[in-house]
Recover the amino acids of this structure.
């Protein structure tokens, strides 16, 4: 029973950065911008967050620093694809490569460095409840903030004027422009917000989840977050469910190794990515259903003067 509680706790912790990054990419895609640079933005957030935590000793400042660094990179990406009309796919891949290389360069001095002792975030009284306490009430506040963010974002897109406008920009930017909305600025704002959330996810990885810096420590989570938006059919609540699913698969490999299951470690390490591919294959079997949920102008450039 205790092992099950610990597995649930590990699943929530592992799924949180995926959920945060997935929400950021959802905002991008709802506005019609496809950002393939998530991996690089996560790495920028991770190295920036670790540097801030190492020098300032504050996890909160580290999360904000990671958000700022990734948002800055996202603004550059947004300027290229929204104003210069660069190809979104090629530019996103370039941003991903740049983030990986730049984070490795900046992070050289932080390899092997350690942060201070972790803070106990257990919620009084609730953390002592058998089974439920260890599983649900001993997490970093970002785990609970992520849950709130999912609900808030679902409400924002379905119930607020601003959310409906962003959705309109992603569905038909020409119509939104004809109604007087500044499509390019709205898209840039969405890209910056999405990048900031990717930065928070990266900083969470390097300062909370595994408080250290290692080159390439994001390990493909940016690509999994991209797949999550498709898996979730662009709905926030489903992104959360998918993030916990992939987080559970990630933790399952360690759990099985701890139980002494004789499976090659390389195969276990493949599990999250195999699960991602299987999910995408299953979803792709129904392209009509996929197109019905996908923003109609996703990945398509917009020319105001056209």
């Amino acid at each position: 029973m205790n092992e099950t509680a610990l597995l649930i706790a590990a699943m929530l912790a592992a799924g949180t950065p995926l959920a945060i990054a997935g929400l950021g990419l959802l905002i991008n895609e709802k506005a019609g911008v496809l950002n393939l640079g998530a991996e690089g933005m996560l790495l920028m957030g991770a190295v920036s967050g670790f540097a801030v935590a190492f020098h300032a000793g504050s996890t909160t400042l580290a999360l904000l620093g990671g958000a700022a660094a990734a948002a800055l990179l996202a603004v550059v990406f947004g300027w290229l694809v929204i104003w210069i009309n660069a190809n979104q796919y090629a530019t996103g891949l370039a941003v991903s490569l740049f983030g990986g290389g730049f984070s490795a360069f900046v992070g050289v001095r932080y390899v092997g460095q350690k942060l201070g002792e972790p803070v106990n975030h257990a919620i009084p009284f609730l953390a002592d409840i058998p089974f439920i306490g260890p599983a649900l009430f001993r997490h970093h506040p970002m785990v609970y903030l992520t849950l709130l963010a999912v609900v808030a974002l679902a409400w924002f897109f379905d119930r607020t004027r601003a959310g409906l406008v962003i959705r309109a920009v992603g569905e038909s930017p020409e119509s939104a422009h004809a109604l007087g909305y500044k499509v390019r600025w709205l898209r840039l704002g969405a890209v910056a917000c999405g990048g900031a959330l990717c930065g928070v996810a990266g900083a969470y990885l390097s300062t909370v989840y595994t408080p250290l810096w290692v080159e390439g420590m994001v390990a493909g989570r940016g690509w999994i977050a991209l797949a999550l938006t498709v898996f979730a059919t662009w709905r926030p609540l489903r992104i959360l469910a998918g993030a916990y699913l992939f987080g559970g698969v990630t933790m399952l490999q360690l759990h099985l190794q701890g139980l002494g299951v004789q499976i090659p470690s390389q195969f276990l390490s493949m599990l999250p990515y195999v699960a991602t591919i299987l999910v995408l294959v299953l979803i792709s079997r129904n392209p009509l259903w996929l197109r019905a949920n996908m923003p109609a102008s996703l990945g398509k450039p917009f020319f105001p003067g056209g």
Observations:
- The mean pLDDT is 89.
- The CA atoms of residues 47 and 106 lie 7 Å apart.
